[in-house]
User: Fold this.
Amino acid sequence: MESRFYLGSILIYCTLLLFLVTIDGASYGTHKRGISSVFSLFNLKEKSKFWNEAVIRRDFGDLETSISDKVGVANYTKAGNIASYLKLSEVDSMYLPVPVNFIFIGFEGNGNRELQRWFTKIDHIFEHTRVPHISGAFTQLYKNIDDKVQQHQLPIISHINYNFSVHAIQMGGKVSSVFERAIKILARRENVSDTRDGSDAIWQVDVDMMDVLFTSLVDYLQLESAYNLFILNPKPDNKKAKYGYRRGLSDSEINFIKENKSLQGKINEAGSVPQKFPDLFKSKRPLYEKNPMAKFAWTITEDTDTVEWYNLCLDALNNLEKLYQTKDTADTIQIKVMELLNGKNVDLKLLLEKELKSGDFRGLHAECLTDTWIGKDRWAFIDLSAGPFSWGPAVGGEGVRTELSLPNVERTIGAVEEISENEAEDRLQDAIQERFSVFGDNDHQAIDILLAEIDIYELFAFKHCKGRKVKLALCEELDARMTDMKSELQSFQDEEYDESHRRKAVEALKRMENWNLFSDPNEPFQNYTVARDTFLAHLGATLWGSMRHIISPSIADGAYHYYERISFQLFLITPQKVRHIKQLPVDLQALQDGLSSLLLPSQKIIFSPYMLPLSEDPALAMAFSVARRAAAVPLLLVNGTYRKTVSSYLDSSILQHQLRRLNEHQSLKGSHAHSRSTLEIPIFWFIHGDPLLVDKHYQAKALSDMVIVVQSEESSWESNLQCNGQSLLWDLRRPIKAALAATSEHLAGLLPLHLVYSQAHEMAVEDWIWSVGCNPLSITSPGWHISRFQSDTIARSYIITSLEESIQLVNFAVRLLTKQHTSDQTYKLFRSQERELVNKYNYVVSLWRRIASVTGELRYVDAMRLLYTLEDASNEFFHYVNETKALLHPINCTKERRVQVEFDMTTIPAFLIVLGILWLVLRPRRAKPKIN
Assistant:
């Protein structure tokens, strides 16, 4: 037993010794990395000439790889992630080209070079923006809000940028003469009883007739594939000093019809009116072979380019002039009313027919006189010679249109405009007569006459001699006269004159010594230059505002998708039940026509009216009662009178909540909801007797899932808006305009024309200059015709939403690829996915480019056909990225296990010792002989 214990102890000791020696050898080998053990074959080195990674993860056939595959593996692993390997990065911006023509009429003077220099670099790029929503009835619409608490479906500052390609077109003298003559012939006195001289009266120009001129010129030059903004600078007519543009009749003309029963009878008995303007659209002379999109262009049209159009328009205007020359006031008003009844303005036609039938004319109100206008097609105009006018909030508003909002030629350039020799002599004679008229027939001292003469020459020189480009001969004569006057003044210093005369002469000489009014050749043309630059800067800011407000305006926050069918579910909510829906005071056909105008040509309308009497639906009656509120609204009228009115209104937030609760128990929706191709818009139309509004100030309101409209029996509701010093009156019996504006916001995010998002303020700001035109988004006209500007904005809203969502999806997919790290193990598997992945990405990019190109050509219907394809292509790319990620996931998650055996030559003696001891201990022994 003792020998076995002894041998076991020796064996344990030797084993421990071997273990310590092995640890020491391993440590030694670790410090000397240049020495490899012969057993380190599994410690695979990067430069091992015996083994490589292909042996482990590929079969033997893959050992014979080509050089390109080796380079591909190196590039793949070196990239770090799949997105870098494919050279994919997140999309930051996408650009939509927008062609714009600025057409200058009446600028054929000598300052055209400066005009061209100023507008050469007007091309501009800015982001598409969205205005955040504001909840609650007690906040002003679209004002500042804590943006942190809102969750936006799409970014407020979009990835989509507008790239404006601006081209200026300067029209010749023939075009200018046509518009000047049209203004002269089509102008009527605003006040039919005003017998003052024409220079003191206010004149209204028929904008419907002007519409024909603008449309025909755009069509004749084939400029309809761009947005056209006309800048008019007609020569002022002294007989019609102040004029503006209006659709329809003035208040004076409406009262004239109301009081003249015989005129009403003539109008009712009269038939159709022949067309005043001939067909001006037959002949066309394209100004461009193709609308240039690359860079700014300045085009000067020759009279030969427009001579055919000029002759047609001139003949039509001459015929109109002959027609109106033989007519008195009643006949002129009758002709105008008949034109409206037989014209294309459906809203005015329906309104006039009803008012003529009733005979009270309570709901017929004059539209505002304006000097800007947005046409039904892709054109708008500014008349720098008209007005000035003002409109906007009566009190408490910002960005209101004032008399100084538009650039004024007379107040800037006209104030320092160089006059001719004859005009200079006439003005000098007028100044002399005016100055010396105070002297009368009494005798005056010679010194007083000299001083008066000096005053005249000084004032005249500052106005017409100092800073001129071309010196007047009269100024040189005055310079010589001033030298003679100095000699005369010096003669008054003799003692023979009174002390007062000598003192006056000395003071006058000191004044003249500081002058250099006539003879300084180095005098810069500072006055004219400053006035010109001020005018052009103001004009440039106005044109930039037109691009921001009417061509590419901000839209309401939200995602607005394109649907092939739009289902309008109209719920007419009345206090009592009526026998038939047609007995309600709502023009359903006019409303349906208005709603149809919000749709693109490729969309179809589904119009479903329902009648819901409150007397038969207690739950709905309770919802109406809960949402009804009253508020004391302070009003400061335009004449300075303070008045407090109690306004009854519906709180839209409460009403929306109540209607949603009703929908949980009984469906208020139609049968077309929840479809990719059909959008359903519920419109709740409340008909009430007493004046009723929505959120204190509105006739209609767009909410996230419905539109609310209120109608009452008040025909002349005084709003919080004003126009040219008069309060704007609303006919609460006909809220079609407000209903279409709210529906367009719900459908595509359209906002009133005065609202736009400001990145500097990080909120919506107001500018009321372009709140004009007979469209639902303006305040200066009760008309509700959708302009091509607005229909294009609706189409772009659908396009931008699809592009934005596609960009977001692609960017998210690229971020996923960025997180997928590259390695040798995943290369072969990724190669099987690479081609299809790149193809799907390239297909999305090609659709982006195609949509942008088609949109730049204003072919929105063609762009609509690509939106569903883009949505499917983006989803396929995203899903394929997810499939690729899932395919590579098992390899990326598998840990590479390595067996590392370190061995050194110093371990050999330990092995020998152990083997020797074991041999001694375990060797077979010779059996001892047994001795008895």
Summary: The radius of gyration is 43 Å. The mean pLDDT is 79. The chain is about 45% helix and 15% strand. The longest helix spans residues 824-856.
